Predict the structure.
Amino acid sequence: MAHNNNKFGTRLGLIAATVGSAVGLGNIWRFPAETQANGGAAFLLVYVACVLVLGIPVMLAEFSLGRGGQSDAAGVFRRFSPRSKWWITGGLAIVASYMIICFYMVVSGWTLEYLWQSLTGGLYESTQAASDAALEKDFAARMQEYICGTEGPLLCTYIMIVINIGVLLLGVRKGIEKVSNILMPLLFVLLLIFAAVACTLPGAGDGVRFFLSPDFSKITPGVFVNALGQAFFSLSLGMGILITYSAYYPHNVNLGKTAVTVSLLDLAVAMLMGFIIFPSITSFGLTDAQLEGTTLVFVTLPEVFVHLGATQFWSILFFLSLLVAALTSTISISEVSVRFIQDRFHKGRTAATLIVMLPLFVLSGICTLSFGALKDWTVCSLSIFDLLDTVATNYMLPVVSILTCLYIGWFAPPTLLKDQLTNHGTVRARLYPTVRFILRYIAPALILIVLLSAIF
Ligand code: PHE
């Protein structure tokens, strides 16, 4: 077979790459925070239902568009409906994904800095014999000082951009697939070790109970809205990523099985984080600790590592995992725009990569400084970082997902979904009628509720 750098080479490789996209900061720092804020196990239950009932069908819609259309996220709509405006859906996904890269790159830079500080030990230099309160204050102050700085955070953001450029330039099979094949198993092993250690700490049982035994009275409409939003973000839906990646899937890959595998692995990583965070905070009596994203990762977990002993070792392993999760996600989201520039403007891989990535030195740079030097640049009292995050994740992603469901359910060529799920009649897809029904009626209606609740 001719070596085609524009397709994933193996089934394992395409799963690793797709899971690499799905597993990101969404699993590692958003999921525990959402679980804590929404009542623990009750949230988990609703979350699992959202992944299975809504996430997988919408993922299949994106896969069908991508592999059927063999183009970028906007090009697939043009291909199937040339004289319509449906390409705007893909265009919106591309814009949203580019907005997300701008600020996500900043956060992945922070993880790089924390990995570095774990390696040098700098993060823990003043922690000997301090009380919990003092520790927490110290880590919080450190984080604040770091992210509000200029040269340090900028340098880390830039290093992350350069690493992304390197992988993207190597292409789909030699870059994205190779890197994911190495990094994703590593991430799983690291998180498994952490979960095993956390669950065997004295007093871990209370944390596990909070995470696993549901209090059904806590299931409210708000919990549902948050769970659905989290599920879609975590599965990388509505960003054009899955359309783009599935265009690189070989034609004989079973999309249904792939969607189930990817979703379950993504769920597994979120659950592993639950088994890491909740037992450790109950065991060390940190139950009042804030689990909101940055605080969890840059304040609470370092505190946990101090209690755990072998502090630096655990800290290095954790920030390495975080970096891996962030890197495979930024690669996937950058690929959306790279593929778009390649297809739409007939550019080579190198030119397209540079056209997409070089502006980030300015744009992600601005996001990096939006905590410090540029904190006065605000719109509706949101910093540039928060503005991009809010507009893209809360508004644009749901809109793209609703339109994608409606398109596949009602407007796309009628055989597209079925042909893609059955590989043109060569494999069985028993759930096809259910998937189609969900995409036509249920998913658009429920995502609309999430969108409306973000607006009002
Ligand atoms: N699923 C990713 C996550 O959980 C979402 C994402 C992908 C965000 C790519 C940014 C870039 O973090």
